[in-house]
Specification:
The structure holds 2 protein chains of 2 kinds.
Chain A lengths: L1 H23 L1 H86 L2 E10 L8 E4 L12 E4 L2 E9 L4 E5 L6 E6 L5 E6 L21 E7 L9 E4 L11 E9 L6 E8 L8 E8 L8
Chain B lengths: L4 H24 L8 H13 L1 H18 L6 H19 L5 H25 L7 H33 L3
The chains are: A alpha+beta, B mainly alpha.
Chain lengths: ~290, ~170
Amino acid sequence: MAPRRGNARWIVGVLALSVALFFLFPKTQNRPLSLIETPFVWLATTITGAVERMGTAAGDFWTNYVDLHDARIEARALAAERDQLLARLAERDEAMRETERLRTLLVLQRESSLRTVSARVVGGDVSRWFRSFQIDKGSRDGVKAGDGVIAPLGVVGRVVMVTRTTAQVLGVNNRGCIIPARLHDSRLAGILQGGPRPASLPEATARIPLIPANLAELKYIPRSANVNVGDRVVTSGLEGHFPPGIPVGTVAGVVRERSEMFAKVYVTPEVSFATLEEVLVVVGPGPAAEGGG
Amino acid sequence: MNATRPWVILAGLAVVLIPLQVYLLPMLLPERWVPDLGILAVLWCGLFFGEGVGVVAGLLLGLLYDRFTAGVVGQHIFVLPCVGVGAAVAWRLVSRKGPAARMVVVALFVVIGELGAAALFALSDAILLDGWSVIHRLLPGITADVLFGAALFGLADLAAARRGVP
């Protein structure tokens, strides 16, 4: 066993020397090592790359998560801020529109030769049969039953009932509202009454569908009169509650029947009752315009 | 039952009814689907407290209605007491009382009340009761009243059943 141990020592020594010499002479390294170096390097690079990519991905994932969390918090805050700004914008928009409406009303009030009181629409009618509304001015402000009510676009209706602080206005599209009016171009005068039952119109004369709820009839216009769809109708001023020349509506249809003396002239009011918010009540003749509200 | 209770309820109705009907409901619902709270309130009084309270409720709320409508005065003060008394008498005559029977009485007297008021308005030429107004005003109105009444009286019946009141 002793000679074998001595041989082994020699062999180990020679091998160690060979390795040492191998590393001492770079030129000799390349050939034998290159065979095993390439796969080892590839393997090492791949593993290192994979680990690095995993590390980067994990880092990115965490960073993205944190960013997303922050972004969500920020988005919530921004959404709340946006809602506040939108609400503020809507308020400003509403205030601007109101200012514009009131300015138009004021111009009408100043230009009018009549004594008027401005009022705000505050409610409707208890009955579904009447298109009337409540205004916030009453006998305390000089409003009386029968007074005319106008808006910048035209005639609204007539006051039918008054309390000390409120009044009820019947729109021109109601059957109980009767106003002296005339055709603007032909100057033919008649009586405007709301709530007519529209006769069937020939195709050519009916440009718009006639809705009884939003219609009035100009009565006592001769059948032979030259009335056309689209003609303007204004107040005639024959009765004291409305000044002459205020727009009432537009002719929406004309029916001439042989058996009748007068034509049926259907008029669509200028004023949209659904969107009415402020009005002027004509409380009497006189140059001075009173500010009511 | 406390004898003063119906009158307290009636006084409360008289106070809140007009603001609800004139100012609040038109803001919340489309015009044609606004229920007539007056007729429902009178029906409530007639059905739950009898014809005495029904007729007084009809007179009081009818007066208020006539005051706050632009039509000719007198229609509501005539129609609503009739509805209150009629509903109370009809309810007394019903042999098998229950939620379904109550709804039938409510629907019947809503139709009678609405048709009666419309007919009286048409009679005084305040409105034209033609096909268009029947389809676009009367029928949606009656539908809204019956649906609202069904909800209102259904809840009342439910509450009564919970309290153990027959």
